[in-house]
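So, can you check what follows?
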Amino acid sequence: MSALPDIEQATGQVFPPLFKQLHAAGRLSWGSPHPQWSEAVFPSLQAEPPVLLYAQDYEPLESDELLEAWQDLTAEDHYNPLRADLQLLPFARTGAGDSYCFWSNAPGVAEPPVVLVWHDDDRADVLAANYQDFLFRKMVEAVAEYEPPYSLLSHGDLAGNLQRWLQTHQSVLRSDQHAALQHLFARTGDIAEGAISDDDAQAIVAEVIGFDQLDASFAYVREDA
């Protein structure tokens, strides 16, 4: 099952409009799975980077993985069973197996915040007020975590990679987010030298997308587990 309406019906949850827009445009996929993905698939994506191609510790769930990820997260026999009052919809993961999710029934919000659900801890971190803000945050953090050769941004010309990445994301960012990234990505010398710290990145994040729950954490595991 890969059609988003079918997944929404099965889960009883709704993906944010921007996510659905990007999915329909084919911008969320990083290509077919491959044992040598970085050599066989990644180079073909660099000319027109899909969503968050250069983000650190981020892997999109392909269409045929979305429902399975939700079923795993909500399974009764899951080793960290989900609280009954939480509705979480996974859309990506970290390399360690933690899940980026939309918090579909977060109280008092128009769009679902994005949370990181830790697979080995009873903890979910609020990363952004919405999906658009999450994209911005991951793009900012990518340059603070720049570490050749592990960072995909270091594969090829750094300035060119940053320029193309920003160009393909301009239409999904607010004008203030685009301006902040344009200024940050222009600092290619500082990025290459590792002179942009995590504190620098988080200061930009707080200034541009800050809200009262940013980086708050909550328990997600059912109490009787």
Summary: The longest strand covers residues 88-93. The mean pLDDT is 96.
